[in-house]
Design a protein that fits this description.
Elements: E1 4-12, H1 18-28, E2 32-43, E3 48-53, H2 56-67, E4 74-77, H3 83-95, E5 101-103, H4 118-128, E6 134-135, H5 139-146, H6 154-165, E7 171-174, E8 183-189, E9 194-200, H7 210-223, H8 228-244
Parallel strand pairs: 1-2, 1-4, 4-5, 5-6, 6-7
Antiparallel strand pairs: 2-3, 7-8, 8-9
Helix pairs in contact: 1-7, 2-3, 3-4, 5-6, 7-8
Length: 265
């Protein structure tokens, strides 16, 4: 059986994040990737200059077309900018009985552009997060979802992971890449098992698309049948390699992408 994963996400015209990063990640990890596009962005390595939202009805049509035909093993969700799209995605997941779902609650681009309407955040909490197997916020996104201050310590991250778990996901991965110190530590918690996932902090400005890449790599592992904790550990190792090799690429004038095919070309 061919392992298949679907990304439900926005398009990054520069190719470093969003749906393009997800499909590259799936391919690099030996998984067939399909897509449902939720928004078009005009962006490059320096800025997001425009966003064109895909109508919710057309998002629904994409979901039904893909999931009615392909034997989907896992789903990664990224940019959902409007409340109607959040509702459409949640309804589509329910209609097609998808449970191996990884939600990356994308809110702000690396360049600083807000990518989600304020009234869509509450819907993420109430309608979508309870339906997913894993939610993967960075420090700022975790704080926004909880309406609290950004975590400053690993203990804070652990407490916020516990609080996010009460919203109903199967597990939480709070990402520490935007923190400080010599290590980038992510904290995984599923109510029983807890994992501390450290990696040496790599000195590079080419980190565009790291969050998209990590969540897509987790979905790829799930599509291949890995248990969730194993998929998270393998994905962390993959994205760390991709960041470490990012400076092998020369893409754009700003924050370039990670190297999704490090060691392959």
């Amino acid at each position: 059986m061919t392992a298949i994963a679907v990304t439900i996400a926005g398009s990054d015209s520069s190719g470093g994040a969003g749906m393009q990063a997800d499909l590259k990640t799936f391919s690099a990890l030996g998984v067939y990737g399909a897509s449902v596009i939720t928004a078009l962005t005009a962006q490059n390595t320096t800025a997001v200059t425009a966003i064109h939202d895909v109508p919710a009805a057309f998002v629904t049509q994409q979901i039904d077309a893909v999931f009615s035909d392909l034997a989907v093993g896992a789903v990664k969700i990224g940019m959902l900018s409007q409340p109607a799209v959040v509702q459409a995605v949640a309804a589509g997941l329910a209609r097609h009985h998808q449970r191996k779902v990884v939600l990356d609650p994308v809110m702000i681009a690396a360049t600083g552009r807000r990518l989600i309407a304020a009234d869509a955040v509450d819907l993420l909490r109430r309608v979508l997060i309870p339906r997913v197997l894993l939610v993967t916020p960075n420090l700022a996104e975790a704080a926004a979802l909880l309406d609290t201050a950004v975590a400053e310590t690993e203990a804070d991250m652990r407490l916020q992971a516990e609080r996010l778990l009460t919203l109903g996901p199967g597990a939480v991965l709070v990402k520490g890449g935007h923190g400080g110190g010599p290590e980038s530590v992510d904290v995984f918690f599923d109510g029983t098992a807890e994992l501390r996932l450290p990696a040496h902090r790599i000195a590079t400005r080419n980190t565009h698309g790291t969050g998209c890449t990590l969540s897509a790599a987790i979905a790829a592992g799930l599509a291949k049948g890995f248990p969730l904790a194993e998929a998270v550990v393998e994905a962390k190792a993959y994205v760390t390699r991709a960041i470490a090799a990012a400076d092998e690429l020369a893409i754009g004038k700003g924050h370039g992408p990670v190297h999704h095919f490090a060691g392959r070309w």
